[in-house]
Amino acid sequence: MGGLSLADFGIDQALIAHLVLIFVVFQALVLTSAFMVWMERKVCAYIQDREGPNRVGPAGLLQPFADVIKLVFKEDLRPKAADAFLFAIAPIISTATAFAAFAVVPFGGETTLFGLLEQPLRLEVTDVNVGVLVIFAVASMGVYGIVLAGWSSNSKYSLLGGLRSSAQMISYELSYGLSLVAVIMLAGSLSLREIVMNQAGAWWHVIPKWYVFLQPLGFFIYMTAGVAETNRAPFDFPEAEQELVAGYHTEYSSMSFALFFMAEYINMVTVSAVATSVYLGGWLGPFASDTLGWVWFMAKVLLILFFYVWMRWTLPRYRYDQLMEFGWKWLLPLAVLNLIVTAALVIWLG
Amino acid sequence: MDLIVFYVLAGVIVLASLGVVSSRNPMHSVMLLIVSFGALAGLYVLLDAPFSAVTQMIVYAGAIMVLFIFVVMLLNQHREDDPDVIPPSLLRPNLRAGVLFSLLLAFQIAWFLSRLPIHPFRGDAGTVSTVSSVAEIGKALFTTHSFAFEVTSVLILVSMVGAIVIARKEPDGRRQ
Fold first, then answer.
1. From the list A148, A152, A190, which residue is nearest B134 (CB)?
2. Which has fewest Cβ within 10 Å: A53, A240, B35, B114?
3. Does B57 touch chain A (CB under 8 A)?
4. Is-contact A278 A195, C-beta < 8 A?
5. How many Cα atoms are found within 13 Å in the side-chain-facing hemisphere of B52?
6. B-chain residues within 8 Å CB-CB of A141?
7. Looking at beta carbons, which residues of chain A come within 8 Å of B68?
8. B58 vs A136: CB contact, 8 Å cut-off?
9. Helix A156-187, helix A254-279: angle, nearest 10
């Protein structure tokens, strides 16, 4: 390099570390969604007293990779009457927003990688002081992927699926947001890192100071709305097979279908990660939360993800009018009540 | 670096906005408007106002544009270049007058802008923290501007009730 070092180009260790971190988070999300496909099929199989995938790799663990290879080699079909540009861009919007939402989630404390780095690296992609709002903003962009997919396919099943999905996401976004506002009032901050830090310590040295114990109703509302937001059973109306074939992605095939699939699983991971950070103390655990915080974080996220899968294969789908009635007449008033009571208590107790 | 980002974002805004008015497919117009709003949010981030940026995304790019998309999707099946969409009175003869007037207007705006005193924005710590702090914005909304805030919410409520009254059908199917 003739005496030049990377620092001469304005590239220092912190920047490289950060880029590596972003790459790792990206790959981890992709791998998690692959693992989730495997877990979904395995848990579903055991619930239905079957074996599930068990041919590819140990315990069928390589099944998702086989699926991806199959999907890559499939022909990418497009309906003749579809809007070519919007049809192509819709799955990209879905996946990109799913990835982007995870950027503000902290998954560990600070680390120097055993003294490898000069400055400690914070285990999150970015720490903005309006982190919770960023998640809402990105989630509201995610609706477009689904709506556009439904509209541009020029098929009645797709259009109905897209409409249902957007109506559902808009209805449940309110309760989703209001349940988080209560926690924001308790923590006094919009940054997810600060919200996690506020949950350090324990009451009487036994019960951790997690917000789930202060906000049990809020946690319930968040989880319910989160299931509806991610279009999962028992709220999986956008792709209700018996009525809509496959909903908004009926006309998609090959990798563009896989992108929708991946977006759904990454959205689940994000909802679980936010639930972990906001209600379950994030990376904080009873011991070694400084160095091994990310293990605690992953364990909690996996627990919530398992709960999601468990619920999907246990509960039957509601009716569409029941979904709307539940969202507007029960969940939203409950969220408002929770918010008002929390606000009153925060003012009363200082 | 900031300057490059600014020009890229400004370019995206201008191009996307031009696309909004020139696109023949209303759905593409709506999508380009969202792109324009997104780039505008980027400008807010550049000005150290992340809260404004995020509310821009949630309220404008998210909530309002979803309504636009619904309207376009459900009501508007035609394309803008259908002969019956553009009234003939807006064609040839009026075009020349329109071009003349817009040139005059552009000249006028340029003249005014050139006479404005130039005060470069100084990002001093006090201003920036006030702009970006959610708590400060909340305090200002509920104390100094509480009247305007409440009046706005009543206004929105009135328009909501109005929309429901207009759209509502009587039980026997007769329009109100």
1. A190
2. B114
3. yes
4. yes
5. 18
6. 57, 61-62
7. none
8. yes
9. 20
pLDDT band of A130, cuts 50, 70, 90: confident
Q: What is chain A's percent helix, strand, coil content, to nearest 5?
A: 65, 0, 30
Two structure tokens written together for B122: 């100084």
Q: Give the whole-angstrom CA distance, residue A120 versus residue B75.
A: 55
Give long-range contacts, CB 8 A cutoff, 24+ apart: B143-146.
Answer: none
| Backbone dihedral region for residue A17 (phi beyond 0: left; psi -120 to 50: alpha; all else: beta) | alpha
Tens-of-pLDDT digits for all 176 residues of chain B? 778 888 888 889 989 888 888 877 777 888 888 889 888 888 888 887 788 888 888 888 877 888 888 777 777 555 555 555 556 666 666 677 777 888 888 888 888 877 776 665 555 555 555 555 777 788 888 888 888 888 988 998 998 888 888 877 666 655 54
Phi, psi of B43 (to 5 degrees): -65, -40
Nearest to B66 among A133, A136, A143 (CB): A143
| Residue that the structure tokens 């991806």 belong to | A68
- Residue A111 pairs in a beta bridge with A121
Residue identified by tokens 């106002």 is: B49
- Dihedral angle sign, alpha carbons of residues A290, A292, A296, A298: positive
ipTM for the whole complex? 0.74
What pTM was estimated for this model as a whole?
0.78
Instruction: Please state, as a whole number, how many other Cβ atoms lie within 10 Å of the Cβ of residue A144.
Output: 24
| Helix boundaries (H) for A210-292 | 211-214, 216-229, 241-244, 254-279
Q: Does B134 touch chain A (CB under 8 A)?
A: yes
